Amino acid sequence: MEARLRVRRFDPESGEGARYQSYALEVPDYATVLEVLLQIREELDDSLALRCSCSSAICGSCAMRINGQARLACKTKVSALAVDGEEIVVEPVGNMPVIKDLVADMDPFWQKVRAVEPWIQPKGPPPEREYLVPHEVMRPLADVMACIMCGSCVSDCTVLETELSLGKPYEQTFLAPAALAKAYRFVGDPRDDADAERLLALSRLEGIWDCTRCNFCLEVCPKTVAPMDQILALRRKAIEQGHEEYLGARHTLEFEKTVRESSWL
Amino acid sequence: MKFAYWPGCSVPRQGTPELRITAAAVCDKLGIELEDLSLAPCTGSGILQARDLVYADTLNASTFAMAEDMGLPLMTICSTCQGVFSQARKRLKEKPDYLAQINQTLEEQGMKYSGNLEVKHLLWVLVEDYGLDEVRKAVVRSLAGLRVAPFYGCYLLRPSAALGIDEHPERGTCLESLIEALGAEAVEYRGKTLCCGYPLVGVNDENSAAMVGTHTVEAKEKGADCMVTPCPLCHMNLDGVQPQASEQRESKINMPVFHLTQLIALALGVDPPDLGFDRHAVQVKSVLDKLGL
Q: What ipTM was predicted for this assembly?
């Protein structure tokens, strides 16, 4: 079948702005967008820059915006999007600076992940032997731990997009779904004893209460992470542990009280 | 065609009584019969769900049970209500043990939910059940020449698995189809599927107003005369917070925003004084002038 791709090109060394370039080529019916991009690079245009590695939706390198939505190029079949041979628009992930063509600078993404201190912080003396964790506690965390850090959820986060459009420096913007989901992975882990500090920090500005619940991260995550569900789980934990003075927490508690008392708002 | 009707909690009590009035007018004109679920509780709006999911699902299952008791499918007029209902419906349908657990609580009230109720937004009802050809026949005042920017509201589109978008792909474009059936032109722009910012009101007003500013200005730049939304919460923000968005941008935006039912009612011949436009923050006069009303 013929695949037609319209690819956003940008080369900082050219001194020119971004432009779109269209390609058409014969590909197998089962081809993924990644396979088509690689074929373009090998046969038509060796200047096209993109990141990829495993081609199996494991490494998370090839996240990009395909027809306006963040997806893994290796997990997206051309035939699923272009039923009648329509042109597919391929752009780099959103909410991150572009280095070249489809390659984005992931540094701001990693900054946010590092900000939630993504390691287990036990208190007290080290255990005598390995720490056994009940299966039912770890099972839900396994979904969160399946995150491959592809950046799709951050790409399409509407709050982050809004704050960047207001000109905020990246380090002062919303922590965004991937880092918050990662934070839940530790708050929910019984081996971690830093819940109080974590939930206090996450309750503050640019944390859990700044999510607008638009569901985009749930929609675009190529794995089982469901970042927004983890943000809501963090909200539940924060309230349970007494972090009630924040506007979002107060709104939630007032809402709940009104509905429980009258069935209505 | 008859439905158990859930008008939504924001409609009679808070910001948008004009939606309830115009929904009734539209359904009356089209011959869609509505039976009010006057005793049904709030859906929880996604907020209660984050506190106590079982309690929230029990409330919504009780609403479903009331509709089943009437022997009618359920109709909503709010994207958020529809989304919250659709998500609850999916959880109850996919997990029989969970449904049984919820039904134990409902039994105390003499209620039972089967797990199979159909729940549809008025927009879906018109496109999927009533039919756009029938809508076109009912139009007595074509909106020809009017350029309308659709704004869906997050909960009517995402998560798509709960909203049945795979089985009903037309749900991703039904608002544009309806706009065109009324004779108007649908304006294409990126913001139509994004967030209006309503959930951030009172929590982060700067971001909430910025979202309003982005979408209304984009619609304006694409040449829209007005926007239309099937979600009263989106309306409260896109219209009600537009003055703050204008202040934030230091430039008057002036983008009229219609409830879906107001736009339909205009095309069905309801006169503007009966559509509650006096409740809007942004006047719709420019639109009425364009239509010669």
A: 0.95
